[in-house]
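Human:
I keep going back and forth on a fold encoding question. Comparing notes only helps if you start from a blank page. Show me how you would write down a chain together with its backbone fold. Write it directly below this note and I will take it from there.

Assistant:
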Amino acid sequence: MRILSYQRMSTEDGPGLRTTLFVKGCPLRCAWCHNPESISRELSAEWIGVRCMGCHTCVDTCANGGIVAEQESVRIDNDKCIRCFSCVSACPTGALERKGEDASISEIFAELIKDHAYFGADGGVTLSGGEILLQSEEAAELLRLLKESGVSTAVDTSGYCNRADIDRVLPYTDIFLFDLKLADSARHEEWTGVKNGRILENFEYLTELRREASSKFGLWVRTPIIPGATDDEENIRSIADIIGDKADRWELCAFNNLCRDKYERIYKDWNFKSSELMTRERMEALVAAASAAGAKNVRYTGRTRMEEERA
């Protein structure tokens, strides 16, 4: 699998304490993406300015001219970078980091199973993205090994995949975490780069499977609440109409801006860098709107502006 990172002791990617595996590659281009380094499947290097002491060892090491010295920084020229990562190895302060690696299923399983002791009765492993179902064959094998070892499993997906990808992981998945971002297809394309028809079809497919006696898996829906993009009550009511009572839980995930420095590292401007966090009152109003529209077990997650200011 082409993976990005492991996140241990996670409490936001399914029930209980979990270890989340993030992979590289996503078919969506969400304008608010909080993991922009996971979108491309290509391996890459990133420069972290606060660690850099300006020695330019990386510039001297790169034989291909892929790193350019600037006045107070260095810039990675991705057109010339050949992903040899000699610069990462040579950097004395860790200011250059490799993003992504290829690992065997057995290697990944060995890393994940280390955490079995703290999962408890509710926790487990979540496979996330990018989009994990772009690597559905490998994901299915990994999930099978985890299930055979008594580990609870979750798949976090955008839903933008082939039905066959869902079928591959279905026998080994305890919970699907399914994103429904925008109900209107034109708006969905505007903000994510793709229409939502396939996503809605796959959501319906999962809900149909849950009606079968032989299919016993949980279904959580998650909607990122992004200021000016997904946070209007019309969108929430429309998604509520889609969900109804078909999901076990619906999370409205409050916007956070902790990823601003990630965009700086990949030399991109982020449209939401100046956006404020949602207020508790606004999140509660959206939960109320969702509930009034008939959705069941709705809650919001994440920090709000008031809580951040107190911290």
Summary: Residues 44-99 form a domain with the Alpha-Beta Plaits fold (CATH 3.30.70.20).
